[in-house]
Amino acid sequence: MADTYTARPVDPRLHNLNGISANQIDQHYTLYQGYVNKTNELWGSLETADRSKANQTYSAIREMKVELSFAWDGVILHEYYFENLGGGGGNPPDEVRKALEAAYGSYEAWVEDFKASGISARGWVICSWDPKAGKVFNYIADAHNSFGIWNAVPLLVLDTYEHAYMVDYGVRRPPYIDAFMNNIDWHVVAQRLAAAKK
Questions:
Q1: How far apart, in whole angstroms, are the C-alpha atoms of residue 129 and residue 160?
Q2: Domain end among 31, 51, 83
Q3: Do 135 and 172 lie in a common domain?
Q4: CB 7 within 8 A of CB 33
Q5: Contact 2, 47 (CB under 8 A)
Q6: Residue spans of alpha helices (H) in 84-185
Q7: What is the three-state SS of 21-48?
């Protein structure tokens, strides 16, 4: 029997964000649920895939595995994103601030890079603890399954696809990024950093 995954429910805090409406969140959640459904469908299809016809140019199993990486990463990144919202933004706790300052020289320089990454990315900004480099870095992804850095642990995830802000801001991304910054739950980020460093 195929594995199945259940979408997480909407955290009620996300209906009371500063500058990101409940309508925006609800529509975004519907998209997330679609990724969950497609992941479950692909897991089921892979159970019966004909592996004897596998081919690197094109085969059904290759296509399903590529699309599973898109769907499942879509689930994972959206869950990180929704989970790190619902706080009051502001200054991060000391342990997070120190990690950001160690990597970027100052908290303000990290913010500047994170926002610039948000304008540059076509899909995601993922501030990660990179254990190989031994520091925090702001990575971008143009799609759920592009440019991922192996072993880097997401600390703070920003969705920059238009679906994340179109309801509230149209095509204006900068005010959405500002709203995102004002709603970061730094406690969640601190927990992720502590777990990543263990």
A1: 20
A2: 83
A3: yes
A4: yes
A5: yes
A6: 94-104, 107-120, 166-169, 173-181
A7: CHHHHHHHHHHHHHHHHHHHHHHHHHHC
Residue listed under structure tokens 């309801």: 167
Selection from 193, 195, 184 nearest residue 13 by Cα: 184
Of 172, 178, 173, 127, residue with least CA distance to 17? 178
Q: pLDDT at position 3, please? A: 75
pLDDT in tens, 146-189: 998 999 999 999 999 999 999 999 999 999 999 999 999 999 99
Cα radius of gyration rounded to whole Å, the chain = 18
User: Residue 172, Cα to own-chain centre: how many angstroms?
Assistant: 20
Of 105, 149, 145, 108, residue with least CA distance to 127: 149
187: tokens are 């406690």
> Which DSSP letter does residue 136 get?
E
| The model scores a pTM over 0.85 | yes
Residue with tokens 């601030």: 97
Residues 166 and 119 in one domain: yes
As a whole number of angstroms, the distance between CA 123 and CA 40 comes to: 22
What residues are paired with 135 via a beta bridge? Answer: 130
Would residue 13 count as lying in a domain?
no
Cα(48)–Cα(111) distance, integer angstroms = 47
First to last CA, the chain: 35
